[in-house]
Amino acid sequence: MNAMPNHRLLHIVAAAALLLGAIGCGRSPYDNPIANNSQQPDKILFDKAVENIERHRYELARITLQTLINTYPDSEYIAKAKLAIADSWYREGTSSGLAQAEAEYKDFITFFPNMEEAAESQLKICQIHYNQLQKPDRDNVHAVRADQECRQLLLRYPNTVFRVETEQLLRNVQEVIAEGEYRVGMFYLKKGSFRAGVNRLQAVTDHYPLFSKADIALWSLGENYDRLGDNFEEQQIAAYRKIVSDYPMSTYVDPAKEKLLAMERESPEADPERFELHRHNIENRTEPGTMGKFWGLFRGKPNLGLAAKAGAPAMTTLMPTTPPSLPSAAAAAAAAVAPTADVTVETISGPSALDTEPDARRNPPQQEEEPE
Hints:
Blueprint: H1 6-24, H2 41-54, H3 58-71, H4 78-92, H5 95-111, H6 116-130, H7 141-156, H8 163-191, H9 194-207, H10 214-227, H11 233-246, H12 253-262, H13 272-283, H14 290-296, H15 329-335, H16 353-356
């Protein structure tokens, strides 16, 4: 057998060494190290903890960091140590670890609200729930929490360097929430519960104008307001007009104009800003391929390819609304006959119960004698 040439042998050995260095040790750089080379004992403890985090020895890292906090309470590395504890739970990635990471990040924001890392901590809280998103037809608890935490970041730190990233996370989350509400509304309409259906779709189109199926929802609104009778003609017209003005790239624009013409109403002009926004979001949508759709049936994660890539996300919580033709809670309360504690005085004329009935107080009930 011929011996392998030396240069080929050297290449193989070098490649094997690089491979072992990359994946054999399983190390990844920590996000928030301290760059200086101080030999102070608290700095040494912090460096050891960072090394343990990089080697995925999270429990040992937390013990070291807690030792630093307890031994050197006045250390300049206290804030970094608390953040590193939260990061260790976050990188551990288990359900209990993520819950503990969220609690640690919230503590860090409470004690160090003015540090640059506070905004990053809020972003990590948002990502904790974002990474656990489920499909729109499943439990949306993490979608709701991600929506709340991402909005909190934008409201508390409006000038943060994470603003662009957070806005996109928020658009993705709101696409999932809106899709879930849309499916519920369409289910009610197919079932024949038109008031419940249009109530859901109206709330979705009003609150999430960036929703990828907002134009479809508006078309369904127009069709089903027509089924509810002439009293809802104005709502029907408003739905068709919104398609024409706010979603000018939609395939429902021409049918909506025909509906408005048949109802002898004018069609509005397309909003130029909405036109550019709608065009940009449509051009940047990504549809899953055939295999992607097939495997998507078995995945719990939602498809976010249709989510908007531009536009301001909703900055308030989606609140339940009252179905049309039903009185609001305030109106119902006003219409109800409420009890009153008012005392009135009235002059008695003619015979009354005081004249015809004996005073019960003068005839107390007889006590029965106990049998002997």
